[in-house]
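Per reviewer request, we include the raw input and output of the structure prediction for the construct analysed in the revised manuscript.
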Amino acid sequence: MVSIRHATIALVAGAAALLTACTAVGPDFEKPIVELPPDWSAESKAGGLETGPQQQVEWWRVFDDPVLDLLVERARLHNNTLEIAALRILEAQAQLGIVTGQKYPQVQAAAGQATYVSPPGSGAAASNFWQLGLGATASWEIDFWGRYRRGIESADAAYLASVAAYDQALIILTAAVVDLYLVVRATEEQLRIARENVAIQQRSYEITEVLYRNGADSELDMQQAQTLLLSTKATIPGLETALAQAQNALSVLLGQAPGALRDELARGSGIPGIPDRVAVGVPADMLRQRPDVRQAEYTAMAQNALIGLAEADLYPSFSLSGSIGLTSTTAGDSDFGDLFSSDAFSWSVGPSFIWPFLNYGRIKNNVRVQDARLQQALVAYRETVLQAAREAEDAMASLIGSRQQHAILEQSVKSALRSNELSVLRYSEGYSDYERVLNAQQALFREQQRYIVNRGDMVRNLVALYKALGGGWENRADLPGLDPETVEQMRERTDWGELLDTPQ
């Protein structure tokens, strides 16, 4: 008769042989290829854009604005949306730990029981007794078809996708902070221009009013001057509202209450300038840089592994199960001390298999579902790449166009200022009517506002370009990921082990 030791050795050897022959069913992932041109369009390479190596790790520093640098740093430390992205990485790490644990015996349980038995009175043995038992069971489904390996592969890719999502959130946050800061500065400039023009138009109105009161001019000139003055004044409340809203939005991005930054923003002034030359690399650099492209790839990779996981259900699963136990009863002459005697010991061990061969197409259709989802993910990857290239090309075109417009509007403002001076001079000397003054002052305010708006748009277009090229996430290792207060709250609720100590 085969001994327990020999039987155990044989089963372990058989399991090892099975594992050696194991194969992972389902397709292996192949990175989708999307053909992009080797260089940007000819139009995009004009206007100060160069295809040299990108220098975008801290691209916001090109604006040389200490207030902006401080705001970006604080937003990256305290933004709530970014912290949620970091928490999703923790979630993905924990999920990876769950599926990794399935490589080992899936059932490991210790059990005990105490049962009081009262036989029927008509039986031969009518006395009541206790029955005690202690035991342990284990069951290990051998990963013959790679079900669990595919699950780990999918969870690992999902974890990498969550890291890429964090990087993308970091890029979006940084660009949003810089963009809102530029909105604040551009709106402040528009307010300054509006108030300057109110002062100019106020003086003109006072002149026409004096002339009208003295009978030297018509009421029409006075009313037209007042209309222009009130029209310009009416733009100020709207600009003040827009400024307050931009300041509030910027405060929230930094994890603060609306309005908390107003005093701090008062320390800086003016719209930052932009460098004469901007290195944009080539389309291949953009694909390596952009986290959303990596995220789309990892999402497809995770879904690819789920096909193999579903396909494994088509084949039989092999398991190795065993149990040991101690049983005793107080019936008859026995007592609780017999629980630890050799006669109370029992054990069992052996292989088994399950094969759901009559599944009525459910498993095959599940494989088809996973394959269709994979194809969606592959198409989504291709779309992400194409949209990334479009965003970069659009941002380049917008930057070049706004630069060209900036040079024209700069000359237009100078011309409008001179026209206003000449019209006022000629009117005061009696060589022209007041309509020339009205037209000149209207044109001056309009061109100055256009100039400021375009100047703000030009800098914001550069921000959009840096965002499209995907820079600014590389130094995330310097960030805490989670706020210390958040870490403390999570530690008090749950045993996170070393996960909260690991840099995200």
